[in-house]
Amino acid sequence: MVETVLNLPVVANVSDAITAWQEWMRHGKRASNHTLISYHTDLRHFLEFLSQHLGGRVSFKHLEKLEAKDFRAWLANRSGEFEATSTARALSTIKSFYRYLEKQSHAKNDAILHIRGPKLKKSIPKAVSEEQSTQALGIIGTQHEEEWVNKRDLALLVLIYGCGLRISEALSLRYRDIPQHDNLRILGKGNKERMVPVLPAVKDAIADYVSACPYPFSENSPLFLGQRGKALDPAIFQLQVRKVRRALGLSDTVTPHAFRHSFATHLLSAGGDLRSIQELLGHASLSTTQRYTHVDKTRLMNAYKNAHPRA
């Protein structure tokens, strides 16, 4: 029988501590499911690196004895695979976890607090062109030997591109969330709800995947499943997109999130207004959405030529 203190399980090892920390974040800090998924992914990558770096299972003593060079080795390991923004968030996650460990008297390490993350540039969103998006959609459903997996990957990319979702938002959907009408309710960052329209092509792709999936669904099942019938790991889908990128000879900026950018950019090109796009993307600030005006130079130049008296 598991004893509890303040409704959190007794901690015996690092794995228990992660579970307790996530429960504390969920109930004490009211972190959203999307945030918790990101935290879980960051911690898993960190511990997987440490297990190889240290040559064994990671304990509290290991976490206490890590030096600055160990943390920098982890950051260097991420640099070739993850974007700087993702690594900066991961470092923040690890620091938060260490603060929790210290507060609960499990482990203390001051070295992590002095580690600086990568410098972040205020970059313009890098969208995928309409032609490249079409090519990517044509390839992603042909990469795997199992047909249902191909249909899953296609449905997920169509959903991200067709509705402008973050990958965490798409993967948090449950079977009960399958759109029956022309809109979809999304729980985004900060537990903010928004409604997004759903194109027939998106509904058809999801229905095709669900009918082909060999695993049974319940109302509360994750909508997108991995090959073992569990919730799909975002890293698996990111790998599939990298394969598409290499097959088409596209730049390293073509990630699942780039298709969310493409959703916004292509809407803007078609005459969509920024306020509506802000609502569809779930941006808290219009200034975040305004970055897309720098991407759509063609539309702005056409507007200038049509409206300016000296053009």
Offer a quick outline of the entry.
The protein is mainly α and 311 residues long. The protein contains 15 helices and four strands.
Q: What does this molecule look like?
A:
- The protein is mainly alpha-helical and 311 residues long.
- The chain is 57% helix and 5% strand.
- The chain is built from 15 helices and 4 strands.
- It has helices spanning 14-27, 33-54, 60-65, 68-79, 84-103, 130-140, 147-163, 167-171, 200-212, 234-248, 256-269, 274-281, 286-289, 292-295, 297-307, and strands at 4-5, 8-9, 183-187, 193-197.
- The strands form 2 sheets. The protein has a two-stranded antiparallel sheet with strand order 1-2. A two-stranded antiparallel ribbon has the order 3-4.
- It is globular, with a radius of gyration of 22 Å.
- The termini are far apart.
- Residues 1-6 have low confidence and may be disordered.
